[in-house]
Amino acid sequence: MIDEIIEKANSNNSYDKESYKKRKKEQLDNAYQMIDDALDELKTNQSFFLEYLKVQSKFDMYSPRNALLIAKQLPGAVQLKSKKDWIDLKASFKSPKQNRITIIEPGEPYTNKDGKKVTPIYAKDVIDISETNMKPTTRFYDKKLLLQSLFHECPITIKAVDSLDSGKKCEWNQNDKAIYICRSNNYDESIKAISTEIAKINLYENTNELDDDKANLISYMICQKYGIESSAEGINNLASKFSKMENVEIANELTSMKEVALDINTRIGQYLDNKRETKNKEQER
């Protein structure tokens, strides 16, 4: 009797290495196919393009390919971790079987037999906080401080004016090497305007080309991250450009946009953290 129980337990717990490798390869292949389908969808589906931008704004440390995977599987995701990481945080799950999302991540680089350095890519399961009994952290941002952070971190001089001949709220003048911004008490409007011009400058430094559409959508991602009212101007134009590109080119375009947004967000975050630290020190005195 005991021998039968042990034998059955060992059978159930046996680890089939080849079966596991096959399953993970299939998962990775499916992830790559999902990414390819998502890149195609960006060309024709504005709603999905918008979902992708919102996901990338929330997960600005994630690659565009992973943001596309999340947008395809669970666009409303807020915070993603592996099951082990959730357990380490003492999280409990609402259901014994959680909805899992596939993303991809690099493994440890190694040198193959031809002497080339290779970085393997693996498929990974992650779970959103909505599958747990933990509550996501909600952070509210002071809009005045956000605007100050953009002014503080701007790579060139900013000048306030009453109006611009172009009718715009904000404009980068390459000849004057300055950004002109109209005076306004509308923080949302000003943050959207100045972040667009800063994105335009960053893109120009990287590509030596002006791209209003990409700059507008980078600004949209930044505004989404900080809860600023904004519209995704240029999304139709960019989708039209994408329709003439190969998917690998589109992925590269998304990466350049994400890197600019991340750079701006990093500088904003550093400014806000410094202000918070200064305020805390003053309160301690």
Please give a structural write-up:
The protein is α+β, with helices and mostly antiparallel strands. The protein folds into two domains: 16-131, no CATH class; 143-284, no CATH class. Helix content is 56%, strand content 12%. The chain contains ten helices and eight strands. It has helices at residues 2-13, 17-42, 46-58, 64-73, 83-88, 143-152, 187-207, 212-226, 235-242, 247-284; strands spanning 80-81, 100-106, 110-111, 117-118, 121-128, 157-161, 170-173, 178-182. The strands form three sheets. The protein has a three-stranded antiparallel β-sheet with strand order 1-5-2. Strands 6-8-7 form a three-stranded mixed β-sheet, covered by helices on one side. The N and C termini lie far apart (73 Å).
Strand content: 5-15%
State the distance separating the first and last CA atoms.
73 Å
Name the strands of the widest sheet in spatial order. 1-5-2
Q: In percent, how helical is the residue content?
A: 55-70%
Q: Number of helix segments?
A: 10
Report the biggest beta sheet as strand number plus sense, adding barrel if it closes.
Answer: 3 strands, antiparallel
Given as residue ranges, the uncertain stretches (5+ residues, pLDDT < 50) are none
Number of strands: 8
The topology string of helices and strands comes to: HHHHEHEEEEHEEEHHHH
**Shape descriptor:** globular
Rg calc:
23 Å
**What structural class should be given to the helix and strand makeup?**
alpha+beta
Count of distinct structural domains: 2
Estimate the mean pLDDT confidence: 91
